[in-house]
Design goal:
six-stranded parallel beta sheet; 335 residues; Quinone Oxidoreductase, Chain A, domain 1; seven-stranded mixed beta sheet; binds NADP nicotinamide-adenine-dinucleotide phosphate; Rossmann fold
Length: 335
């Protein structure tokens, strides 16, 4: 391929993301300057946080500027290099962006790419999901903030998604009763029958609050929160004294213009420990987390699932799958 296609942010989306929010710009494949390397993107990771980066609300990284290549995680192969730490043929992961070719060492780079060791017995999609950033989010958020103990009840929302599916499986490994909240019968069957969750709550069913009550007879000790909104408030209503709530995400609100308001009284009355976190908080421990996740995967104790969409050109529309529930497990774009 001799052309580099790049999605550049044209305007800040209002509501759902649309193709019109981006310019698709074509330019020659870049040549590396001294200290740089050029990476051919193989897979892009689509994440709810992409939607947040498109806004200018206060957040944990700078918003993507208008005219800038859309930021996105990915895995790619080094095709040309003028730096000693990256050699041609290396498989790397990093913020490659929504483009065919990324330049490592370009001005404004937030994090340098990381080399993935050769010959790992794990397919690339799983290295991006269950054993990658979303798996690490599940691992550190649950074990370090949720601190689940054997016999406790753990509830996780967006339970059939990338983070949620791993949270539930780790909680099972830790000896907990695990209840997942997901949209629709197919996803509920996936988490109970394929992943081994103890119960599923279909939040799209009219009686979902009764389902939650029936599934949590002893209340809830850990709520791994991925969704926010009414689901979060209902789960908080069933949390126990001194329970814990890792606040990982609030996907139900990312397309909203108005920030939501919540009643914090239950946190006081029930002394619930609420802690927001970003996986980057644990970056010094990624190796430890990745090794543990990979060991579980290879031992058959952790199942990885991905939804793969073909073609860079479909990335903006594919992002909406996360908000429509169109994915099971990690959502990726294959280039
Ligand atoms: N803190 C961190 O470092 C960090 C890192 C990664 C991800 N996250 C957060 O973790 C959450 C999950 O991310 P992910 O990458 O694993 O995505 P995901 O769960 O694979 O995909 C998102 C899922 O959310 C569900 N969903 C969407 N809108 C919803 C709504 N209004 N109400 C209820 N469920 C809804 C959909 O499943 P259903 O079909 O079940 O509705 C969808 O499949 C997000 O909030 C994300 O921001 C945080």
């Amino acid at each position: 391929m001799s052309v580099n296609r790049q999605f550049r942010l044209k305007q800040r989306p209002v509501g759902r993301v649309g193709r019109a929010d981006f310019d698709l710009v074509e330019s020659p494949v870049p040549e590396p300057a001294e200290g740089q390397a050029v990476i051919r993107t193989l897979y892009l990771s689509l994440d709810p946080t992409n939607r947040v980066w498109m806004t200018d609300m206060p957040q944990y990284l700078p918003p993507v500027a208008i005219g800038e290549v859309m930021r996105g995680g990915g895995v790619g192969r080094v095709v040309a290099s003028r730096r000693p730490d990256l050699k041609e043929g290396d498989l790397v992961t990093g913020l490659l962006g929504w483009q065919d070719y990324a330049v490592a060492g370009a001005p404004g780079e937030l994090f340098p790419p990381t080399v993935i060791p050769d010959g790992l017995p794990i397919p690339i999609p799983s290295l991006m999901g269950a054993c990658g950033m979303t798996g690490l989010t599940a691992y550190f958020g649950l074990t370090e903030i949720g601190t689940p103990k054997p016999g406790e009840t753990v509830v996780v929302s967006a339970a059939a998604g990338a983070v949620g599916s791993v949270v539930g499986q780790i909680a099972k490994i830790r000896g907990c009763r695990v209840v997942g909240i997901a949209g629709g019968a197919a996803k509920c069957a996936f988490i109970t029958e394929e992943l081994g969750f103890d119960a599923a709550v279909d939040y799209k069913a009219a009686d979902w609050k009764e389902q939650l009550k029936a599934a949590t007879p002893d209340g809830i000790d850990v709520n791994f929160e991925n969704v926010g909104g009414e689901i979060m408030e209902t789960v908080v209503g069933r949390m126990n004294l001194y329970s814990r709530m890792p606040l990982c995400g609030m996907i139900s609100t990312y397309n909203d213009v108005q920030r939501p308001r919540y009643d914090l009284t239950p946190f006081l009355m029930k002394r619930i420990r609420l802690q927001g976190f970003i996986v980057l908080d644990f970056k010094d421990r990624y190796a430890e987390g990745s090794i543990q996740l990979a060991q579980w995967l290879l031992a058959g104790r952790l199942k990885a699932r991905e939804t793969v969409v073909e073609g860079l050109e479909g990335a903006p529309e594919a992002l909406n799958m996360l908000f429509d529930g169109g994915n099971i497990g990690k959502l990726l774009v294959k280039l």
